[in-house]
Design a protein that fits this description.
five-stranded antiparallel beta sheet, 14 helices, 34% helix, globular, seven-stranded antiparallel beta sheet, binds flavin-adenine dinucleotide
């Protein structure tokens, strides 16, 4: 059957437009270390919006599930074909349709890599601010589909804030366009925002109009180390309370530092809790904000390290970007969630993560985007041990309930995908859930768009 599907699809998209469904990369994403895997019946790599439309129409006529795929860096199993079906990978749709640096805007296809988009903007002195960690791998379509954040979302907001227009293919194979090269548009219901963060469950994003800003002239991070999480979270609240606009405020708890500390470009006292805060802007503004940040962070700190040379600043962020890998290396696997809580509950949520891990006999730690109250609460596992994975799933369910009880959310940036399906009831009542399902049914009545995910 798989070979027959591929042969039919080849007629729609040509030889270069079909992939090998037996190649395991199409069945995985970054949840691989949790043992999440699927196997597609077919893989297509369309090269144009018209080809995406033809593939979606073809799948809908045959009632075949459609699994949109970007870079496969998602942490929710969203791109994993758990029910089989046709994986639609956007890799070949990576063109820049237009770029107007003087008007601070760009029109790109969904398969363009995040790092490439940021590079194109930077070469014209501009910035595309969203900076999710796996920028070399993720695509702009995947970022839009998950409404991805990142460290600098604290100042600049998540991906959706930078999208002014979208082109998408929805069932049963129609091209829709909302917004465009516009900075304002309040006509109609906000379908653009509905598609943003919809994790491939409503349609396939094929292109986007994005807003850019002039790149900040300078950036200056500082890292402060504290004896414990409560003292560190107190410093974060002090930064906000003093009215300083940091570009990013990140944290790493003691367990995370135990894993990542040996590679740190500074000394890490044992048991310490870290806060990284960055200033950016014009050179003068950066210097002033950085000095204010260092002063606010210094109270109660064991030490404050503030690299100044560009290479040292880059080394600090490179180290920060490698944290997920360092933590995974501890036991070979991890279940890492992305709950978010109101900022004044951050210390409670960090402590609760450790308590939940202990109750389920799993080493735990967390790090994350402190300024947004967003934790990567993590249970370290042996990914080959089924019993441990079961305990980690139970721990994650308890974590979701705990975050919701604190007035938070079960997902601050990765989305629900496959791994968090069925947990939305923790934070929404029945009427809200019904409305959510009604939206899905209105756009995808056959439930073919990424079935089993999100809803
Ligand atoms: C080391 C590491 C660090 C990370 N750091 C962050 C971080 O700081 N912040 C953050 O938010 N995330 C982070 N992530 C998660 C991930 O990088 C983001 O969610 C990213 O936006 C996913 O993009 P992708 O192209 O890889 O999407 P994929 O993983 O391929 O897909 C993700 C979801 O989007 C859907 N999708 C993909 N493309 C399309 C499309 N064109 N149309 C419709 N649906 C589509 C898929 O079906 C799936 O449901 C990190 C991941 C890793 C591995």
């Amino acid at each position: 059957m798989t070979a027959a599907l591929t042969a039919d699809l080849r007629a729609l998209v040509g030889d270069a437009g079909v992939g090998d469904p037996a190649d395991r990369r199409w069945g995985r994403d970054a949840t691989e270390s949790q043992g999440v895997e699927g196997r597609p019946d077919a893989v297509v790599l369309p090269a144009s919006t018209e080809e995406v439309r033809a593939v979606v129409a073809w799948c809908c006529e045959r009632a075949l599930p459609i699994v949109p795929r970007g870079g496969g860096s998602g942490f929710a199993g969203g791109a994993v074909p758990v029910h089989g079906g046709v994986v639609v990978a956007l890799d070949r749709m990576a063109r820049v349709r237009s770029f107007d640096p003087l008007l601070w805007r760009i029109h790109v296809e969904a398969g363009l890599r995040t790092s490439e988009l940021r590079r194109i903007a930077r070469e014209s002195g501009l910035l595309f601010p969203p900076d999710p960690g796996a920028a070399e791998q993720s695509q702009i379509g995947g970022n839009i589909a998950t409404n991805a954040g990142g460290p600098h979302a604290f100042k600049y907001g998540v991906t959706g804030r930078w999208v002014t227009g979208l082109e998408a293919v929805v069932p049963p194979g129609e091209v829709v366009a909302v917004g465009g090269p516009l900075r304002k548009d309040v006509a109609g219901y906000d379908l653009k925002s509905l598609l943003i963060g919809s994790e491939g469950t409503l349609g396939i994003v094929t292109a986007a109009w994005l807003r850019l800003i002039p790149a900040p002239e300078a950036a200056a991070p500082a890292i402060a180390l504290y004896p414990d999480a409560r003292t560190g979270c107190g410093a974060i609240e002090r930064v906000l309370g003093s009215g300083i606009q940091a570009a990013a405020i990140e944290y790493l708890d003691a367990g995370t530092l135990a894993a990542a500390g040996p590679a740190a470009p500074f000394d890490v006292p044992s048991g310490a809790f870290a806060v990284i805060a960055e200033a950016d802007g014009s050179a003068a503004e950066t210097a002033a904000v950085a000095a204010a940040l260092r002063e606010a962070l210094a109270d109660d700190a064991l030490l404050v390290h503030a690299p100044e040379r560009a290479a040292d600043v880059a080394a600090l962020w490179r180290w920060r970007d490698g944290i997920a890998i360092a933590v995974t290396a501890q036991r070979g696997g991890k279940m890492s969630e992305d709950v978010a809580v109101p900022l004044d509950r951050l210390a409670d949520a960090i402590e609760a993560t450790l308590e939940i891990g202990a109750r389920h006999r799993l080493p735990a730690c967390s790090w994350g985007h402190a300024g947004d109250g967003n934790l990567h609460a993590t249970f370290m596992v042996d990914a080959a041990d089924r019993e441990e994975l079961k305990r980690a799933s139970a721990a994650a369910a308890e974590l979701f309930a705990t975050a919701a009880a604190m007035g938070g959310t079960i997902s601050g940036e990765h989305g629900l995908g496959w791994v968090k399906r069925g947990h939305l009831g923790h934070q929404w009542n029945d009427a809200t859930l019904r409305l959510h399902r009604a939206v899905k049914t209105a756009i995808d009545p056959q439930n073919l768009m990424n079935p089993g995910k999100k809803v």
